[in-house]
Amino acid sequence: MKKYEMEKWVSIKGYEKFYEVSNLGRVRSLDRPWKNWRGDICVKPGKVLKPQPNSKGYLRVELKVRKTVKRIFVHRLVAEHFLDNLESLPVVNHKDFNPKNNRAENLEWTDMKGNMRYSWKHGRFVTAKNKFLQTLERIKEKNKRSVIGTDLTTGEEIKFHFLNDVKKFGFSPSCVCNICKQKRGRIQHLGYTWRYAE
C-alpha cells in the first residue's frame, strides 16, 4: 500500500526477538516458534498489533513475552527508536495535537514547560479562567430557554421565560432542567410536569 511505502521497521529494545516498531507508528509481532503437544516445532505468524486508546486518546499496545505483559504507549516507542533525545527530555509532544498520529515526523521530545508553551502558542492551552468562563456561558445559554410547567391536578400551565425564574415560585431549576431533558427518570417536580417551550 502506498501509505506504507516509506515505512521502516526496527526491533524494540528489550523485545528484539519478539516485536518491531515502525517510523509510521505501527507495532508488529514477529514470527514465533513453539512446540505443539507432539513436540513438533510450529511457527506462530507475526502480525501488526491493534493499539487501544486510553481515556485521553493516546494509543497503547500490549507486548507479551511468555507470561509477562507490558502496556506501552505507541508514541513513546516511536520517539525512543526514531528520534534523537540528546538532552534526555522526558515528554513526547504530538505536533498536530492528534494522539492517534504517531508518525515519527509528527513527534518531538520536550519537557512539561515546552509542551505547555507549544500548546499556548497554537491556541490549545485553556486556562482555568477560560474554562470557568466557558462553563458560565453554557449555563447562561441553558437558562435562556423558556420552560412550561403543567399542573398534574388541574392541567393549568405556567410559563417562565428563563429557567432560573422558577426559583421565585419555589421550584428547583436543576430538577426542572432534568425533567425537560428527560434525565434521571424524573417526570414531575412539586406536582408539575415540565417541558421546554417550542
TrEMBL record:
NUMOD4 domain boundaries: 7-63
All copies of domain HNH nuclease, residue ranges: 73-117
GO molecular function, one term: hydrolase activity, acting on ester bonds
Pfam family membership, one: HNH_3
InterPro entries the record matches: His-Me_finger_sf, HNH_nuc, NUMOD4, WH-like_DNA-bd_sf
SUPFAM superfamilies reported for this sequence: His-Me finger endonucleases (SSF54060)
Protein's recorded name: HNH endonuclease
Protein origin, superkingdom: Bacteria
